[in-house]
């Protein structure tokens, strides 16, 4: 039985439990701190553990911490200082081991650095040989990474701190030669502390007869270090300098950032694949830094630890690194972009929102951003058709009464019928009569009767003109032009069929001359103001019809004060091959819904029926309406609607005129209105997104694609949805929704990108694998097998 300790205290049971190894955690820590203060309990503890640990004067050994290359490391209490220290005791005494042990003490004594464990004392005269160092309460680096969530930025910072400490050691003339995770402890504050200088080497060999020199005969050393962390020259037993430690730092960096064994650090393909697997930002840069560290040629490694640290700082900051001497042309551009996203996120957000505003505004504008206005169901137009039945009636003589010269073959002679038609329409009191014809040539033998009918009708009459000269004068027979109310162009451009609608040119601008109306627009003006001439002002979104009175009363204004806007869908410049157009002519189109013909346009009144009807019947058909007269003969002026229906141009003109009279032309947002709505919506959404915290580090691979897909979806939706006319509320909702989502996704993408630049990998972090080497190969005398220990 051991002797009872002097002055026993109340912690005897805990001390005995600690000696038996039964205490863990907080209980063990409290008892060890009690031993540091209580001499009686220390004495009792030494009696209980006397056969387990060596006896060292003025120390009480508490536990074994590990076994190094030359001895056992213990945790001990210094009696007089009442503090914990780490004591390394040499085992297996040989001349070579003593030399390495003394060399370690001598070199460690030179170093005073916060990240290198401090040497307190050494005993090298008589057994047991030992030295005492600062006790670091912490974990070995590889265990620390395995049990803690450590981001890539923190891992690089750990390596950076180790490199700076090694740079200090190199300036003091010390090379470690065995840097690896097992020789780096992470203290309670998360700071690395370098330990175990067992095979350290002096940069400058100092010959001293009293102190053995393990470098005196390098031929006996062979490979010294740990596989995977040894530089090629170190592996070959050659003379090494500080660049061997730089190699080890590179291997350590590889292990830190990939978790893989350091023996793969020199395999470039494995290195790059591992970095990409870990979603490391700017993987090529980090791979270049590691490759520079572990280059087989020591002269091509970093010149010193400070150069390595500088490149790590550049990498973390997103700046170009020095390790990439021959970088591709886009490398620096990419770095500038990355730096801008990192350092000026608000500017990049503004640029992204501006780009989204431009794209959405362009899509809405080019697609028209148009809607159907509320349509009045009233039919305001009637179509009179000259059909094959009309030609048959002329040929049979049914329509030739007192009309000498009228023949079916001579269409110019049909003007005799047109005059009679106008005489019949006059008493029916239509609002306007529109002739979907052009009369470029005069035929006095037929025109006299036609002009007489025009004058007798006493209603506004509009005729078509196939073209106009450079001054805007129409190609019309002067006698007919003088007799009609106005004229409108027929040959401005052919109607275009898209998405169940028809695009019709309503006006043509030629140089600086006033815009010339198309037939339907001239008819609209005459319908609204039969006592006026029309002038057309062109704006980006509408044609404004201004009405000039033909006769003025005393004190009356010449111009009506209510210009009538007609929406413009698009403006196009005439193609060089387009007939009856001059270079630079600008066609202003409107768009009208025309999925199919209305029944009244599909089955028009025939010319022969109108001539045979009495006045009462004519009034039922035409009173107060626009009457359009058109030629509807097979193979003449025909086109197909989108549904495949074959129609005549006069039927299309009649439908368009009816829509104009009912103000049913498709309306659209103006360009300034579109830009303003989109801009305000995108900015509001961007500000809202900036108020929402992202929560943790951005996982760019998992979080980034959804906003990118949302942005693409917004642009796609804006394009396809607004191609079709919508109800006003639906179009407004579409523009607002696309703008809000577009602004939000653009802002979120920039925020994620900014955070990705700040944080080099997404969370969670990874753990180191178990394959990292930890065995140090020790020097052996010539002819002996090299020893290796943990």
Please give a handful of descriptors for the protein shown.
single chain, 790 residues, alpha+beta, six-stranded parallel sheet, 31 strands, 40% helix
Write structural notes for this entry:
With 790 residues, the chain is of the alpha+beta class. The strands form nine sheets. The chain has a six-stranded parallel sheet. α1 (12-19) packs parallel to α3 (39-48). The longest helix is centred in the last third of the chain and has 31 residues, at 728-758. It is rod-shaped, with a radius of gyration of 48 Å.
The major sheet is characterized as:
6 strands, parallel
Percentage of residues assigned to helices:
40-55%
Distance between the termini: 36 Å
Average pLDDT across residues? Answer: 82
Strand order of the largest sheet: 16-15-14-26-13-25
Number of strands: 31
Multimeric state: single chain
- Kindly name the structural category: alpha+beta
- Percentage beta strand: 15-25%
Round the Cα radius of gyration to an integer and report it: 48 Å
Give the low-pLDDT segments: 205-220, 698-702, 778-790
Q: Counting H and I runs of at least 4 residues, what is the number of helices? A: 26
> Which overall shape is indicated by the principal axes computed on the Cα atoms?
rod-shaped
